[in-house]
């Protein structure tokens, strides 16, 4: 019977090398689980680094840093990061010891981890295959119990075809993801490409960890196609990912095994060949002949194998070693040569290439022989063109071909290469697109290098892409987001290749700079900011080394470098410095457009740092400059900046008026590309602050309507940043302020989903804060305080304190409900002090009200008088700002005060009409519970006090109305 080791809430099953908690597998790498088992086996003993290495990495030289990394991972998995440790202790200068009690017991039979949730399977489909049915069935069976399976064979053997057939047979539920690695030039890009295919746009240093987190709870099958040029990197990636994701299977195709831990290899044999002397009917039993005949029929329109042709076709298939791609290429030549002549020329070609020793060559050289033969019979012009076309990593148009083919008459040359099956044409969806098969492209690329013309052709490609992306920027307005993306996303791999070439030693960095600048809107629209920002510093360094060479380009690059400050917590400190430098250059060369972009970015930073007074300075500076801009929208956008700033300053009615006027004027303007210049859709961002202002002015229903309208518009235009912005700054907070808890939960879930997929760190942290408040409303103040205690320092350290004060008020309420009144007062006083120093006022009244609720229950003899002082201050601040919503909340808190502690007559509660013109709404259900609890606690110190007799009935009445809404 299997043995398990139990400690704390965890169990380890050594025979299965699994760590479990609550019957669920805790993801842990293979080396890490070995270290953990070793330490548990010697519980209470100090194990030196040398002993650990000897056990986990026998016969291998390993740096001690590897042990520290794995120990750190184990501690995170065990949640053993506090001091002192619970499970693993570090003994300085000696090693590590497992210090928790360990219980040994038999493992329950049939112990398994809980099944991961599944996603619908993607239908990849497959064409007709020949002679692989048994192989496909075998691989499918093995894939059911092997987590890493590699289909191995020479180039052109049909690995991808078999993999697609296997996937088509797979009936397991869950996600099926196909990742083509053929165009990936470096192993370091493997995690990035997989993350992109999953829709994960990472902005952290550990993309693999984010992929693992995305797949950890799912049943998934990932196909990594064409791994042969990245074998080492793919092996490492697969090992690490499989160790972290128990429900994942990986199917790889490669010319050689990955040699990864746990890998099962299936080698694909050549297609079965016919016997030596045969008739047509006998030959057609051979899968190799079947493939040849089908491709020949497709090429000629009508082809049937005759007894006369059968021996020659059999000989062709034999000489091509049954390699599928070679057979297809040969069949494609029947358009210009007969079967007999084809067989003879193929024989001559092999004799030249192998020098009579064909069997001595590695199997991948067989395909090279086929390609050599195809290449040798091409006219010189077509040989050159094939090499030049090899610079395209994927599909390309006839126009693109003309840009790189040097001999002219690209249309005729392209048509000839298509007829000879060296270029594939696809006219199934719109204008004809072309591509080279991957093996053909690699072969042709080598031929291009032999001619010494690679640099000249790559320069032509880069210049062609620069023109394409400059035109693409102009189409941002006229084309829909879906059409624009579909038209231009296909150039991604070519752009990467062109930039790699341009910035290589001794190439053309200035052309690379211009290409990056032209592609900036492309990077932005496709949310490829990380990739963009990997290139921008290289371009800046080159221009900074040549002062005055191209200041306009330098300005645009510094502006691009400032982008991440808007949407990530780990933004580099140089974000604002980059925008400031862009502003200086723009002022120096008199570029109004980029001056406005830079001022806008500096305004955003001031607002994000909760410095509205500074923000007002930038907003006014923007408005002054916008008046001289040739773009009529710029003054209108200036009104949005000004109106939004007024909101944070507590001037809500003015903010509403400016934003309403701005929206009316903006609607009358022609469409433009402001979401590229200023990152967000201007209609959506204006409605965000308009909704917030409306709520504070007492127009709750109108505010929620504005939220819905903003979200719908952002979704319609497919602008993910604007959609996430509307969720983070309007939908979630207003749903909470309006006590629409179900709506708040829904919006928060949406925000978490979108910001995780797009790596929008700041708004993802906001979602965590909203979840904390939801926990408080559900009676979990401890969870709320703990979560906010972890998140707020991260936001503060990253310079994103826009909502810090209101989040602090939530934290203070949680601490209050936990009985930690001193801590609660400290937190709320800090928030009030921050407002005093920065000029932030939008929630100042609420901060004073919350302070009053804390004072009311802190147990001091004068608690009620001090609470009354805070309420009076809250009321004064709310009335000063015209914040009817806050005034209503203060009114509700004042109602909760018992009669002996009522306000002086001059500060009596006034009735604030609702937006509908009726009476004052009573507190929401969560507020009533909060106020009732506070009043009960306060009565312990003021026994004679009680609520007015009519108050509970009004509360019950309002509760019914709230439920009806």
Structural class: alpha/beta
Number of beta-strand segments: 15
Q: Main β-sheet, in a few words?
A: 5 strands, antiparallel
- Mean pLDDT over the full residue set: 81
Number of helices: 43
Ends apart, CA distance between termini: 60 Å
Radius of gyration: 34 Å
Name the strands of the widest sheet in spatial order: 4-3-2-1-8
Which segments are poorly predicted (pLDDT under 50) over 5 or more consecutive residues? 110-126, 348-366, 566-572, 900-928, 930-965
Helix content: 55-70%
Beta content comes to 5-15%
Q: Note the overall shape.
A: globular
Description:
With 965 residues, the chain is an alpha/beta fold. The protein contains 43 helices and 15 strands. It has a five-stranded antiparallel β-sheet, covered by helices on one side. A five-stranded parallel β-sheet has the order 10-11-12-9-13, with helices on both faces. A three-stranded antiparallel β-sheet has the order 5-7-6. It starts with a strand and ends with a helix.
What is the topology?
Blueprint: E1 3-7, E2 10-13, E3 18-21, E4 24-25, H1 30-41, E5 46-48, H2 49-56, H3 64-77, E6 88-91, E7 95-98, E8 103-106, H4 133-143, E9 148-152, H5 159-169, E10 175-180, H6 190-197, H7 207-215, E11 220-225, H8 231-244, E12 248-254, E13 263-267, H9 280-283, H10 287-300, H11 310-319, H12 324-332, H13 339-354, H14 364-376, H15 380-389, H16 398-404, H17 410-419, E14 424-426, E15 433-435, H18 438-451, H19 454-478, H20 481-488, H21 492-502, H22 509-525, H23 529-544, H24 551-561, H25 574-589, H26 592-608, H27 612-626, H28 633-648, H29 652-667, H30 674-677, H31 682-696, H32 700-716, H33 720-737, H34 741-758, H35 761-777, H36 781-797, H37 804-817, H38 821-838, H39 844-856, H40 863-881, H41 884-896, H42 925-939, H43 951-964
Parallel strand pairs: 9-12, 9-13, 10-11, 11-12
Antiparallel strand pairs: 1-2, 1-8, 2-3, 3-4, 5-7, 6-7, 14-15
Helix pairs in contact: 1-3, 4-5, 6-7, 7-8, 10-12, 11-13, 12-14, 13-14, 15-17, 15-18, 19-21, 19-22, 21-22, 22-23, 22-24, 23-24, 24-25, 25-26, 26-27, 26-28, 27-28, 28-29, 28-31, 29-31, 31-32, 31-33, 32-33, 33-34, 33-35, 34-35, 35-36, 35-37, 36-37, 37-38, 37-39, 38-39, 39-40, 39-41, 40-41
């Amino acid at each position: 019977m299997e043995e398990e080791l139990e400690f704390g809430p965890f169990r380890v099953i050594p025979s299965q090398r699994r760590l479990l908690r609550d019957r669920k597998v805790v993801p842990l790498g293979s080396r890490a689980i070995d270290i953990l088992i070793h330490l548990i086996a010697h519980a209470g003993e100090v194990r030196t680094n040398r002993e650990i290495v000897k056990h986990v990495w026998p016969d291998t030289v390993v740096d001690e840093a590897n042990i520290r990394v794995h120990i750190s991972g184990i501690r995170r998995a065990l949640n053993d990061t506090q001091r002192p440790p619970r499970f693993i202790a570090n003994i300085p200068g000696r090693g590590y010891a497992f210090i928790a009690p360990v219980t040994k017991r038999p493992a329950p039979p049939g112990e398994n981890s809980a099944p991961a949730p599944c996603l619908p399977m993607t239908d990849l489909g497959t064409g007709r295959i020949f002679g692989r049915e048994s192989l496909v069935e075998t691989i499918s069976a093995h894939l059911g119990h092997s987590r890493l399976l590699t289909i191995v064979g020479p180039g052109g053997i049909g690995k991808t075809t078999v993999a697609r057939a296997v996937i088509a047979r797979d009936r397991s539920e869950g996600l099926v993801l196909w990742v083509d690695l053929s165009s990936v030039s470096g192993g370091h890009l493997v995690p990035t490409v997989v993350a992109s295919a999953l829709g994960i746009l990472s902005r952290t240093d550990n993309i693999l960890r984010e992929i693992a987190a995305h797949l950890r709870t799912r049943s998934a099958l990932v196909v990594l196609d064409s791994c042969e040029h990245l074998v080492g990197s793919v092996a490492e990636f697969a090992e690490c990912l499989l160790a972290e994701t128990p429900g994942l299977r990986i199917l790889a195709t490669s010319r050689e095994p990955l040699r990864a831990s746990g890998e099962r290899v299936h080698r694909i044999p050549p297609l079965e060949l016919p016997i030596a002397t045969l008739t047509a009917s006998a030959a057609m039993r051979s899968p190799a002949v079947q493939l040849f005949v089908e491709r020949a029929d497709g090429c000629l329109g009508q082809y049937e194998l005759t007894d006369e042709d059968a021996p020659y076709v059999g000989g062709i298939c034999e000489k091509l070693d049954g390699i599928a791609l070679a057979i297809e290429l040969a069949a494609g030549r029947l358009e210009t040569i007969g079967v007999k002549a084809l067989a003879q020329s193929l024989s001559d070609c092999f004799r030249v290439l192998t020098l009579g020793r064909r069997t001595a060559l590695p199997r991948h050289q067989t395909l090279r022989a086929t390609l050599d033969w195809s290449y040798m019979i091409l006219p010189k012009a077509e040989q050159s063109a094939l090499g030049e076309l090899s610079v395209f990593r994927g599909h390309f148009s006839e126009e693109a071909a003309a840009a790189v083919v040097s001999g002219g008459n690209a249309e005729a040359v392209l048509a000839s290469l298509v007829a000879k099956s060296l270029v594939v044409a696809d006219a199934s969806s719109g204008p004809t697109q072309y591509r080279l098969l991957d093996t053909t492209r690699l072969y042709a690329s080598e031929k291009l290098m032999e001619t010494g013309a690679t640099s000249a052709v790559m320069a032509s490609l880069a210049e062609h892409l620069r023109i394409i992306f400059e035109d693409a920027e102009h189409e941002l307005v006229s084309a829909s987001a879906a059409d624009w993306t579909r038209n231009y996303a296909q150039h991604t791999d070519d752009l990467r290749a062109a930039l790699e070439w341009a910035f290589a030693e001794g190439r053309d960095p200035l052309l690379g700079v211009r290409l990056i600048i032209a592609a900036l809107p492309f990077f932005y629209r496709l949310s490829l900011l990380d990739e963009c920002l990997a290139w921008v510093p290289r371009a800046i360094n080159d221009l900074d080394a040549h002062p005055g060479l191209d200041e306009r380009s330098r300005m645009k690059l510094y502006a691009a470098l400032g982008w991440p400050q808007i949407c990530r917590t780990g933004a580099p400190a140089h974000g604002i410095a980059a925008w400031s430098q862009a502003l200086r250059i723009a002022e120096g060369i008199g570029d109004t457009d980029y001056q406005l972009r830079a001022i806008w970015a500096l305004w955003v930073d001031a607002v994000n740092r909760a410095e509205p007074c500074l923000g007002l300075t930038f907003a006014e500076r923007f408005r002054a400059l916008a008046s001289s801009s040739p773009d009529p929208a710029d003054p209108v956008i200036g009104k949005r900046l000004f109106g939004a700033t007024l909101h944070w300053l507590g001037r809500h009615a003015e903010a509403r008026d400016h934003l309403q006027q701005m929206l009316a004027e903006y609607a009358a303007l022609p469409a433009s590309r402001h979401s590229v210049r200023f990152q967000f859709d201007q209609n959506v961002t204006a409605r965000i602050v308009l909704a917030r202002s409306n709520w504070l002015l007492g127009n709750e229903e109108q505010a929620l309507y504005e939220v819905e309208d903003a979200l719908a518009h952002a979704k319609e235009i497919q602008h993910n940043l604007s959609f996430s912005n509307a969720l983070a700054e309007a939908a979630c907070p207003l749903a909470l302020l309006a006590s629409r808890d179900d709506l708040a939960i829904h919006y928060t879930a949406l925000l978490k989903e979108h910001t995780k997929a797009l790596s929008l760190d700041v708004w993802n942290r906001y979602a965590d804060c909203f979840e904390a408040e939801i926990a408080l409303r559900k009676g979990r103040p401890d969870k709320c305080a703990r979560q906010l205690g972890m998140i707020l320092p991260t936001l503060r350290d990253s310079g994103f304190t826009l909502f810090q004060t209101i989040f602090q008020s939530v934290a203070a309420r949680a601490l209050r409900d936990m009985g930690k009144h001193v801590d609660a007062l400290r937190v709320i006083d800090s928030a009030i002090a921050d407002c005093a120093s920065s000029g932030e006022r939008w929630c100042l009244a609420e901060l004073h009200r919350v302070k009053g609720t804390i004072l009311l229950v802190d147990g001091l003899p004068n608690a009620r008088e001090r609470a009354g002082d805070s309420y009076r201050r809250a009321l004064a601040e709310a009335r000063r700002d015209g914040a009817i919503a806050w005034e209503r909340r203060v009114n509700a808190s004042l109602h909760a005060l018992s009669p002996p502690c009522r306000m002086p007559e001059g500060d009596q509660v006034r009735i604030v009409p609702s937006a509908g013109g009726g009476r004052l709404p009573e507190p929401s259900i969560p507020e009533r519970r909060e106020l009732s609890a506070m009043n009960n606690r306060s009565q312990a110190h003021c026994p004679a006090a009680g609520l007015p007799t009519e108050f509970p009935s009004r509360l019950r009445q309002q509760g019914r109305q709230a439920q009806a809404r």
